[in-house]
Queue: 4 jobs
Job 1
Amino acid sequence: MKTITNSIDFRAVFAPRRARLAAAMQTGAAILPTAPERLRNRDAHYLYRYDSYFYYLSGFPEPESVMVLLAGDTPRSILFCRDKDLEREIWDGFRFGPDAAREVFGFDECYSITELDARMPQLLADQPALYCHLGADADWDARVLGWINAVRAQVRSGVAAPSAVHDLHRWLDDMRVVKDEHELAAMRRAAAADGVNLSVISAFRSLDLQRHLFFDVGAERNQSPQDRARVSAPPGFSEHSTGFAVDLADGGRPDTNLSTSFETTPAFAWLSANAARFHFLLSFPKHNRQGVSYEPWHWRYEGSTEALRLFEPAHRLIGSPP
């Protein structure tokens, strides 16, 4: 855990994301749990993997955690997590505990996860809207409904419950359309640990830039529209304009930048073996059915619901018969 906290400034990376979400919400409360642990057998769990949406806003890697964000004139970010317990750490691994979690991850308040049910009705009281992903876990849905009903029970004392419920994942998908430096950095750090210098050539492109590449540069090269489309998508059709695509290079082999010879580099070999762990996929492999030239340097991110929705037509095309 020391290595993780020394390599990432959690306050600098994740607190601004929470602030952006609170600003977009304007008012209301957002609740976001992490993924549960899964038993492999009677006394052993599968290797734990946190919920991606939860981690995107919190950076917190531990199970049994819930994040609450209260929007408004004075936004508050609150984390509920496991208590510090040196005895359990012998068996389960390191725990931050509420005090250290607040300091390291930049939350305004942190409480024991055992206090969640007692505190949630207070936090939801007089909030006009609730932002929460429902429908994936019946037990979680029932728990949230219990908190709302506890607030509704106070109506005679002038307390109001949220009158609207919004799907939080849809809001987060919009935020995650454009990858920030940290998300690419996670894959680059992993590559560096294996001795591979993975560098970024190009990521998000505006429509104006894509117009320039397709029309102006294509005209300078005396390319027909069909030829241009094989090497650069028309404006409005480029994966780069979605914010999910990136052109990668091997820092030790600049001669292979944006060239099919990139496939001979250690960086390409590493990406082929490891990119899927970070939700990246090679967009245009050899003989792709889109008819786009082979681009071993061009990878797209499919680690969110919005990305999967955007690229679902490409998957159908790839999976279609000849």
Note: The chain has 13 helices and twelve strands.
Job 2
Amino acid sequence: MQMTKFLSWSNPPDLLKRFVNTRFSGTFCVDGTDIVVQSNDATVFEHFPPTETDLRLNLRTFRWKLVYDPEGPSEIVSPIVITYGSVSVANLGLACLFGIDSERGELVAFLGVRGGDVAFRETVLPLLLELTTKALRAPANSRFAPQLVPADNAHE
């Protein structure tokens, strides 16, 4: 009988890229809000809009974490955006998936295209900016709050 070899869990593969070092960082401004960006790809910062205001004067901060996967697919397709409450998820095919939470002021993106690529500049970045701008302009009373139905009224 042949014994199968078990995987060593002392160093498991990070298939979801959860532990990627996003050592590059930068900040730019959108609608009076500082957008603080972290990425493992320095080329993403080449295309950010210029900042005209003093960043220290802005009281609001929105955080982006952009994770580039050099081993991932790079083909971008037309975006599909799904929004539920304060959370939006955008899918641009296997090469790009990101989520944005307007209540937490956070965006996380997994990218198969480099920041220097035309697809990033012409498709991904404009969508990131559009969704961030919508999140920043969302009225406070439209924030998602789950409604619980008391057990007494559940059958009405």
Note: Residues 118-137 form the longest helix (20 residues).
Job 3
Amino acid sequence: MQSAQESLAELRAAIRYCENAISAAEGTIESMDFRQQLAKQQAMNKKESTGREEALTKLVKELEEANEKLVVDNYNLERENAKLREASVDKPTMPVIPRDVAIAIFREGQRLGYNNKSVAENLKGLCENLNFECRIHGIDDIEKS
């Protein structure tokens, strides 16, 4: 028979063995919980990442379509601009007559005996006959307003 002390020692050894087994099992459970949480977090991150990717892909597609439209618009504007340049090559233009020069022309016309209306008509007739643009700064601009 075993003595009481030997039985007590065996029981204590069994208790330590069980405590170690419990501690190992708790570690395993904690490790499994951590892995589950990590897997859930990775799944959420992947889902968020996929959502961001889809949104960015959609945005890129929209921007490419907008860019394509702008390229077509630019091409059409360049063609229209070229047509306008060709049309304006045959038409000589004259810069706008400054206000001081217009006043001097009116005064000279009045000095020669013409009234304001006839001076303006003569200037416009001169411009029309020579195919020039004839605008008097400050006067024609006011008439258009």
Note: Helices lie at 4-89, 99-111, 116-129, 140-144.
Job 4
Amino acid sequence: MSDQNIPNTWDRLTPKSGAIYTSHYVLKALLLTLLVSACSVQAKNGGWPGLPPDCWQKPREVHKDSHHQDLSEIVLLERAGPVEVKNKIYSPNGGYWMSYQHAQPDFMVMADAEKEALNKITFIDVHGVKAPIWINEKLIYMRVWWGRISATDFIFDVEEEKFIYSESLESGAIAMDQYKTSCIIHPGCKCIKAERQDKPAGSDGAAAD
């Protein structure tokens, strides 16, 4: 979970009273160890969490690293009074609902959890949005694209009226194309290099002597 700045919506989860607290220093050491381990794994594949792009069968979206992106000016959360809303999408509980509208360049989501006011979420100047969906009775998942490459995943809790998750990602389509092109010119990428080593001599179409 990234530590992105979303105004008035990002309350850190706090343990209930009576919970046992791990030592501050032990916790910091544990987090540092996990971070170093994750970086070591990614470093082996050129910074990619899985195999590098020259090994992919098709382009993919990648949560490559944690972006500390400031979202305070492009994600707005407001409370709105009762309004006439069409195309309501109901939660599995049959009572809560949401509705969304793409009024370019912005994207707006309205959500109701049977309270006096609605939640109005506005994403400013977006490139595109994957249609919001309910992932359980009270949580809405959204993927917002800020351009052709970068996006952010969000999960919004309509009962708590706040985002409980957000993480940046990027499209790997351009990277995949660049990897495959550069690997052909400069052999050395993981999968293309192995493919060349396994290929019998003369199988690349060159005339045999």
Note: The beta strands are 61-62, 75-80, 89-90, 97-103, 106-112, 118-123, 128-134, 139-145, 150-157, 162-171.
